[in-house]
Amino acid sequence: MRVLALLDGTLVDPEAPHIRVDDLGLVRGDGVFETILVVDGTPRELDPHLDRLARSAAMVELPAPDRAAWTRLVRTVIDAWPEPGEMALKLVYTRGPEFGDGTPTGYALGLPLNAKSLRQRADGVSVITLARGFSPDLVERAPWLLLGAKTLSYAVNMAALRYADAHGADEVVFLADDDSVLEGPTSSVVLVEGTTLRTPPPTSGVLAGTTQEALFRAAERAGWSTKVEPIERAELTGGDGLFLVSSVRKITRVRVLDGVELPDRPELNVVLNELYESEY
Ligand SMILES: Cc1ncc(COP(=O)(O)O)c(C=O)c1O
Questions:
Q1: Is the CB of 209 under 6 A from ligand 1?
Q2: What is the Cβ-side half-sphere exposure of residue 90, based on CA atoms within 13 angstroms?
Q3: Which of these, 39, 54, 238, 248, is most buried using a 10 Å CB contact count?
Q4: In this structure, what is the dihedral angle of CA atoms 45, 51, 54, 56, given to the nearest 10 degrees?
């Protein structure tokens, strides 16, 4: 099932063509996107997602997204989704057709959750670390690399996941050149040490994750401490738990890292998921 609404607010047939073949989002990956989890008709972390869409759009110098229009679009798709339960809602905003008048393309697409994310929520994941190919100070020096923007150029991220699959792992944690931890191809990394949650800072070139931020807010309210600071590769195996977090996968525990079993603490998994749900 799919539900599709275009930026002008019209609900259209998701099986019919709507994007021009010369759309720069398609031919160059020149655009930005968001994926939002909707639960029983309520979008989670909608404001942070719309904030990030605006930040990503600014980084690629697209016109500022019309927040009211995107909010209406989100509602339109949710209202047309016929079932209770969970839906993944993608917001896509591109530079538009190559020889067009400069009007961006935008749409919101409701999709069912993929079975893999659901399975991994329950079972956890095995992860390999892979080089991302930059040093953490590159963010400041090279803004054209768009580190920290959620652009449509995800071919590298998808290739890393295929590489992991070919090497017997479910997921990836990217490392910077100095062996510091970055993020997964579609997730943020959270390391638990006692009652402290740690995640690498956006200044190292990672996307600021809405799920990580919501989890940290909930944890702080519950008396945990949180640290947004660099994490070394070697620290990943020394904590009480390692997690990949994102909107659709929520809080997923890492069972194996680079072939080494991590301590299995199912209760920690439950506690973190409860904290995350308490933000909802
Ligand atoms: C590269 C990357 N980092 C982190 C995340 C997690 O972001 P969020 O929690 O907002 O879904 C994503 C989400 O897809 C991502 O693509």
A1: yes
A2: 19
A3: 248
A4: -80
Q: Does the C-beta of 204 come closer than 6 Å to ligand 1?
A: no
Identity (one letter) of the amino acid at 4?
L
Percent of the chain with pLDDT over 70: 100
Tell me which H or E stretch contains 26: helix 24-27
Q: Lowest-confidence range among 118-122, 151-155, 166-170? A: 118-122
Measured between alpha carbons, how far apart are the two ends of the chain, in Å? 25
Helix (H) or strand (E) holding 89: strand 86-94
Query: What CATH class does 118-277 carry?
Result: alpha beta
Q: 86 has which bridge partners?
A: 39
For the chain, residues classed under CATH 3.20.10.10 are 118-277
Residue ranges, CATH 3.30.470.10, the chain: 3-113
Q: Which of 120, 246, 249 to mutate to test the pocket of ligand 1 (most atoms within 8 A of CB)?
A: 246
- The model's pLDDT over 78-114, given as tens digits with 9 standing for 90+, comes to 999 999 999 999 999 999 999 999 999 999 999 999 9
Q: Does domain 3-113 have CATH number 3.30.470.10?
A: yes
- Identify the CA nearest to 275 among candidates 239, 258, 250: 250
Give the pairing type, strands 241-246 and 188-193. Answer: antiparallel
